[in-house]
Amino acid sequence: MIRLNVFIQVSDANRAEVLGAAKELTAHSLKEDGCIAYDIFESSTRHDVLMICETWSNEETLTAHEKSAHFATQVGKIQQLASMKLEKFKF
Q: Integer distance in angstroms from the first to the last C-alpha of the chain?
């Protein structure tokens, strides 16, 4: 399995739009083959930090996810409005 923690740092001005894009990404991703878990978390101590936590069954399903149209669209929106940092774990 593969776990991704995607940290998103966003300004107050862009927060609602980034959160909307993240929710859209989550809704589509949860329907994909190989998606075990996909969720968005909001920091309770830093209003400017969100995190997407996703778990995939294997590298092939993660690669297919990264090639999907909804991934390109929604991640593209997020990248235009915020900064992102990725942590990847295999277990």
A: 5
Domain count within the chain: 1
CATH of the domain at 24: 3.30.70.100
Q: How far apart are CA 74 and CA 19, in angstroms?
A: 10
- Across-strand partners of 88? 4
Instruction: Provide the residue range defining the domain that includes 43.
Output: 2-50+57-90
pTM: 0.94
The pLDDT tens digits of the residues spanning 32-70 come to 999 999 999 999 999 999 999 999 999 999 999 999 999
Q: Which of 85, 63, 65 is nearest to 74 (CA)?
A: 65
